[in-house]
Amino acid sequence: MPFKRGTSGNSNGRPSKSNTWSAMVAKVGRQKVDDDLWQTGKKMSRKEYVVRAIFKMAEEGNVRAAQALWDREDGKPMQQIIQETDTHVHVTREIVDGELDGKELEDPEVD
User: Could you tell me if residue 106 is left (phi over 0), alpha (psi between -120 and 50 degrees) or otherwise beta?
Assistant: First the structure.
């Protein structure tokens, strides 16, 4: 069957994302649960319950819980990745020796 100009090939549209992992986590995280850990007498979302539990673990000295909180609050620290290749090492050596391709490097003039 040839393609017809102006006719969609997907008449039902894009399938819903309701069954994805992130959608399920978001749905369950919004559910209300009883506060049996802090005894406030009110309901809270599962997400809030988990966050409070992680804070409590961190306060009790759990380093991994504290690290998880820091990583989500401030973001993980950037990590420098150094990759040395033969070319990089060669150029670095020449610059350290004061030459590049057999030519002596000049100090830049500073005004």
Answer: beta
**16-72 pLDDT tens trace:** 777 788 888 889 999 999 888 778 788 999 999 999 999 999 999 999 999 888 888
Q: On the CB side of 22, how many CA atoms lie within 13 Å of its CA?
A: 2
Query: Coil, strand, or helix at residue 61?
Result: coil
- Quote the CA–CA distance of 43 and 33 in Å, as a whole number: 5
Query: Domain spans of the chain?
Result: 26-73
In the block, residue with structure tokens 């009790």? 60
The reply to whether the predicted model has a pTM over 0.90 is no
**pLDDT score at 107:** 57
CB 55 within 8 A of CB 43: no
On whether the CB atoms of residues 77 and 63 are closer than 8 A, the answer is no
